[in-house]
Amino acid sequence: MPPRHLADLSGEQRRAAVTELGEKPFRARQLAQHYFGRLTADVQDMSDVPAASRQLLASELLPTLLTAVHNLDTDEGETRKTLWRAHDGTTLESVLMRYPDRATVCISSQAGCGMACPFCATGQGGLQRNLSTAEIVDQVRQAAAMMRDGEVPGGPGRLSNVVFMGMGEPLANYRRVIDAVHRICDPAPDGLGLSQRSVTISTVGLAPAIRKMTQEGLQVTLAVSLHTPDDELRDTLVPVNNRWKVEEVLEAARGYAEHTGRRVSIEYALIRDMNDHPWRADLLGKLLHKQLGRFAHVNVIPLNPTPGSKWDASPKPVEREFVRRVQEAGVSCTVRDTRGQEIAAACGQLAAENL
Prior knowledge:
Elements lengths: L10 H10 L5 H12 L13 H11 L4 E9 L4 E8 L4 E8 L4 E4 L3 E3 L8 H5 L1 E4 L2 H16 L12 E4 L9 H12 L13 E5 L3 H8 L6 E5 L5 H7 L8 H15 L3 E7 L7 H14 L4 E7 L13 H13 L3 E4 L20
Helix pairs in contact: 1-2, 5-6, 7-9, 10-11
């Protein structure tokens, strides 16, 4: 794991850390105000910190975690994929997307992924390691700085949404992801100050972790990557289904929805002649209406191409019929506006290739 960083620590832990370094406890608040409030990690810009203390504080609490290797832009610059290199050479990716009414960053929680879903480039690459809390948070801080500084067309703006839909299974890195949510959402100087309701955590269906998250007192959106309503096919498409079946996953999701009052997003990558059959749409609608009712919303995702994949997106008429059938069952269903396919930045395409 990377060296200790300010963003790994709670407020109390930060104060203890600076005291151990021979500094006054208030230095912790100063550092946090710069990092979370002003979005800077360069201690040389912190004029209120004595010059004699800066180097020690930088090396012990603000080490460089992620260095941008390169950016790839598409959608006239409004979608930017960044390849990051961590301290140990590990690579990962995040994607910043600007829309007329919001700006969203899609972040990674692991380098690679161990879930092995066959239609996902990240899953096919395997898991390298978990990211630290600070490595997760730093993706968000740097995206917020890009927006503030007007690096994305449209002028200076504000980052509004965070989705844990990049590389990795967030709930397989549970404690660090939950801690990262607090750093992202707590008000400055304890965090970046985004609303919990603007954060989405996506999972392939780790039912025990969903149940655990239900007790955290969070208001984040839960997204479940379901991809088919039947266990027979899901055992292949989402191998973790061999451990936690569809019914158990949806029961856990219902528990989260009932406890938080938050709608659950059901992610469904539509694959030609694989999971796009009318009967599967009918079964999906029936199952979700029964298990989640008004808390269910289906996000249909046209399958994004990945290298070597034998699968393709469903034709538009098939997609429209699928959506219609789910809606006919009384379940909210829309097609996701996919961004970044041209630069392998769309859902399921992140592979952290050093181009």
